[in-house]
Amino acid sequence: MSKESTPNYKTVTKRSNQEHNLGAGAKDVVAYGYDSVSGKWYALHVNSLGILGVNIISSALPTGAATAALQTTGNATLTSILGAVATEATLSALNAKVTVCNTGAVVIASSALPAGAATEATLQNILNSQAIVSNSVSYNDDNFIAGDSPATHDINTDLGRNATSYSIANTGLNDLQVEISHDGVAWTTAITLPPNGSMNEDKISIDSIRVTWVANTSYFIRAS
């Protein structure tokens, strides 16, 4: 019958100042880590759940990783973008300007015609040319005022000859006076034409017609 051995405890030292007692036949294993600076071994510690605590003293960033400097630059850029974003205050200011532009009257003080644009004179020349082609000429003034008087219409120049007939109508609200010239020099006695009045002649020779203002009105003349 074998004699039961008495537990024999021994001290195990692993090049360290720390000592650990291991019982004979014990199955526990102690893990050590080596400190290359001090040249010593130290036991690794875990928490109550057996999780090893790791303290990373240094670590190299992978290629292309963001650094503190780059992140600072990124923050500055985001701040700049944020400053450019419209706020309620800036939108209100813009809205006020749009409202003023929308409700305010726009007055064009002057405007230059583009190169080659038709003017009143060139349009009148076209009308005169059409009159020659159609063998008649017409004149009208929708707002005949004192500053327009007297208005002399040279039929011979515009038609290329003396007209053989004419008609004139007072289309306004006041009287006007009409004179006829057969040679562009001598004039007939002025005839007063009342509102909505008209006069015409044919089989005669007419060089020019002169209209004189009495009060604001309008008229229409045709000669052929």
Q: Note the quaternary state here.
A: single chain
Flag low-confidence runs. 1-19
Distance between the termini: 161 Å
Q: Can you list the strand order of the major beta sheet?
A: 5-12-7-10
Give the fraction of residues assigned to helices.
10-25%
Q: Give the DSSP E fraction (strand runs of 2 or more residues).
A: 25-35%
Main beta sheet: 4 strands, antiparallel
**Can you identify the CATH class of one domain?**
Mainly Beta
Give the radius of gyration. Answer: 56 Å
**Mass-distribution shape:** rod-shaped
Mean pLDDT: 78
Total E-strand runs: 12
Total count of helical runs of at least 4 residues: 4
The fold-level CATH name of one domain is Jelly Rolls
Computed structural class: alpha+beta
The CATH architecture of one domain: Sandwich
Order of helices and strands: EEEEHHHEEHEEEEEE
What does this structure look like?
The chain is of the alpha+beta class and 224 residues long. Among the domains are: 12-43, no CATH class; 68-99, no CATH class; 135-223, Jelly Rolls (Sandwich). 24% of the residues lie in helices and 30% in strands. The strands form 4 sheets. It has a 4-stranded antiparallel β-sheet with strand order 5-12-7-10. A hairpin with a 5-residue loop joins strand 1 and strand 2 (19-22).
Give a short overview.
By secondary structure, this protein is an alpha+beta fold. It has helices at 68-84, 88-103, 120-134, 155-159, and strands spanning 10-13, 19-22, 32-35, 40-43, 137-144, 151-154, 163-170, 176-181, 191-193, 198-206, 208-213, 217-223.
